[in-house]
Design goal:
- The protein has about 290 residues and is an alpha/beta fold.
- It has nine helices and eleven strands.
- The strands form two sheets. It has a seven-stranded mixed sheet with strand order 7-6-5-8-9-11-10, sandwiched between helices. Strands 1-2-3-4 form a four-stranded antiparallel sheet.
Amino acid sequence: MAKTQQQQIKSRPGSASRRPSRVAFPHLNSPVEQDEEWFVAKIDGQWREYRLHDYARLFSVPGLYEHVVYDILGCRSPQVVRDLLERTLKASGVDPKELCVLDLGAGNGVVAQELTSIGVDSFIGVDLLPEAASAAERDRPGLYDEYVADDLTDLDPESARTLESAPINCLTCVAALGFGDVPPVAFAKAFSFVETGGWIAFTIKEDFLNSDDHSGFSRLIRHMIEHNIIEKHAEKKYVHRVNAEGEDLFYHAFVCKKLRDLNDTDLHGASLTSPSVAQRRASCSDP
């Protein structure tokens, strides 16, 4: 097996205590797609196989998700979004303490924790997986004011009331778009909960912005900019992380201001359709 990692798992402020593990990415005859990457980890003396996008299983092992995604593969998207949002807010004269952030694809709270370092202190988490909500409370207890574990394309009435009653003026979605975990219609639904004039900070893989993109995000983002639904304040191309072969994965980070809601004409123009939950993969979080 190649790229075996034998170091102790590093501690990160606010995270749960971690068990030491060894991780290895196997030799493969041909590259696999980003959402099909897998590895093996030695947990409690046993080697076990994990798919990198099987978030329910990853979150069930304290520290495993962050060890693989951040310590080994070098994910830096949360820091990139934090810095880009901080600069944009400063240039616009906005105090981060004024924000109530809807953290879409919240996972175990890595992004929200990064934003606390610039002064944000109000968060509502949303993730498809109840395992993500449990991991957030385990790893970063009390970070979120509310955490909704639900499908945005088919919200439970109680979840809808929670989101509708919150004074949300910022949406973050970091490395969760484009693979089906958060489809365009779910992103549009999250967008609807943000007050007009609020901020939208998100990242997306470069491939999903190309003209031949089939995820629907290239069309949606272009439509939102061209039809004055959002105003782009900042954009940055950067390396999200390396893949299992050690190659750079390029993403774009955006910070935009919401100018108005999406209406039915917009939804039709962007060709948004709602997939069933059965067509969705494991979670709203994408490493």
